[in-house]
Amino acid sequence: MKALRIHAGPAARRHIEQHGLRPQDIGVIPGAAGGPKGLILGPLDRFLFGDWLARSSQPVHLVGGSIGAWRMATACLTDPVAAFNRLEHDYIHQHYELLPGQKRPTADFVSERFGESLQAFYGGRIGEVLNHPRYRLHIVTSRGRHVLAREHGLRTPLGYAGAFFTNAVRRKAMGAWLERVVFSSAGAALPFATQDYRTRRIDLTEANFMPALQASCSIPFVLRAVHDIPGAPPGAYWDGGITDYHLHLDYREAAGQGGAGLVLYPHFQQAVVPGWLDKALKWRHGATPFLDTTIVLAPDPAWVATLPNRKLPDRTDFTRYGNDLAARVKAWNAAAGAAQQLADEFGGGGGGGMGPGHSPFEGLCRGQGREFVPTGMGPKNHPDAGGARRVGPGLNGGGAVGLRRLWASVAHRRPVPHNAASAMETRKSLESTPLLRRSARATLWSWKKCVKSNLSPACREIELRSVLTQES
Questions:
Q1: Which residues face 184 on adjacent strands?
Q2: Is the pLDDT of residue 293 over 50?
C-alpha cells in the first residue's frame, strides 16, 4: 500500500511538470500545529533537512506553530538528523504522572515540565538556531487582546468563547481577541502576506527564543500562557495554532523574494485548516489562492488506518493510556517507525524526488509510484484560472445531476462518454446552476484531458474522483 500522497496548487503543479521538483526551488517550509500527529513527519524531516535540501544553497524560510515551531527550530541545529531523532524520542517519552483520581495534570505542572524539556533540548545551542547560514526561522504565537490580555480563571474562558463566536462569523474579526505575533530571525522578512489577519513581527533573539517557543506550544487550558515576552508587546501569549492551526497563509509573497519560491509542506493530512477554531467549520477547510504555490506531502488516509488504533497519534492518547507509559510509547514508536515509508516514497529510494516531464496522473497510472492530486480543484482552481475555492454543500438541480452522472461513470467503472453530443449534454447539465458554472469547466477540463491523453480507465477514475471529492 502506498503511504504518501502529493497535493499541489496550480502554480506548483505547472512548475513541477516543466522543471520537476528540485531542492533549489523551495523557498518556504511550514510546520503545522497538531501535537503528537507531527510524529509521523519525523522521517520526512530527517530526509528533507539532512539530505535533500542540503543539495541546494538558497535561503529557506521555516514557519512553524506549536509542534511545528519545535520541528522547524530543530531543523536549524547543526546536525538536524540527530536533533530530529532526539526530538522524536523526547516527545514520545514525555510523561506526566497522574495522581489517584486525577484525569489530567494541571496546566502549571505541564508548563513547568515542558519548559524544562525545552531548556534541556536547546540550552547552549540557541545561537545555532538564530545564526543558521540558510534557514530563516519564524515562530508563530497568538497574543491575547483586551479580555484575553492576561490569563485569568474567568476572563480567559469568556474571552475564548467570544473569539469562537466571532471567528464563526468572520475569521479576520477574531483579531479583536487574538493577534498573530511572529518571532522571526533578525532581518528576515515574513514569507507571507498579512492582509488576511492582524499580525505583528518581532525579531527573534537569545532573550526571547525560549519563551516564544514555549508560548507557541502553550495550548489554552492545557498549559499556562507565557506572559510579557522580551522585545514583544506585553500580554499573554498562547499556542500559535489558535490563530494559524495549519498555517494557511498567503505564501504567494515568497515567490517575489527570489527563486521559484515553492512551498513544500510536510503535513499529516490533506486539508490545510486556517485556525484552531476552524476545525469544526468544514467550509474553511478547502484550498484558496494562498496555496497556489504549495506542495503538500501527506499520508494516505487508507495508510493511516493501518497504524495503531487506526489513527495518527494524538493528544487523546494521553487519556487513553493514562499512566501506562509503556503502552503509549509502543504505539507511538510503531507509528513513527511506519512513517519511514513516507520518506522512502518521496525520495524514490534514491532521494531523487520528482523529475521534470512527469505528469502527476501518468506517474500514478503507469506505476511510477507517486500519487499527485491537485489541491482544491474548485471553481477558481482551474489550471487556466489560478487560485482555488471549494464548492460548498447543498448542490442541487441539474448541476448535481451532472456531477452524479460523472460520478456514476467513475464509481461503477462505466465508460465516460466522450462524444460531442454527450459532452455538450453533460456540460449543459453541470452549468444549469450559476454556482457550478466554473466548477463544471474545471471538471470537464479534467475529464477531457484524461480522454485526450488516452490514459487507462483507472487513471480517469482517479482524476475524476480527486476533482469530485473536492467539490462534494
A1: 138, 203
A2: yes
Find cell 475564548 and name the residue: 160
**Tens digit of pLDDT for each residue in 58-82?**
999 999 999 999 999 999 999 999 9
Instruction: Please give the Cα distance from 70 to 362 (Å, whole number).
Output: 37
Q: How far, CA to CA in Å, does 342 sit from each of 45, 89, 315, 339?
A: 10, 19, 22, 5
Q: What is the pLDDT of residues 117-132, one digit of tens each?
A: 999 999 999 999 999 9
Burial of 457 (0-12, 13-18, 19+ CB in 10 A): middle
Question: And the C-alpha cell for 249?
Answer: 497563509
User: What are 442's three cell numbers?
Assistant: 474545471
Q: How much is the pTM?
A: 0.77
Alpha carbons 73 and 130: distance in angstroms, whole number:
9
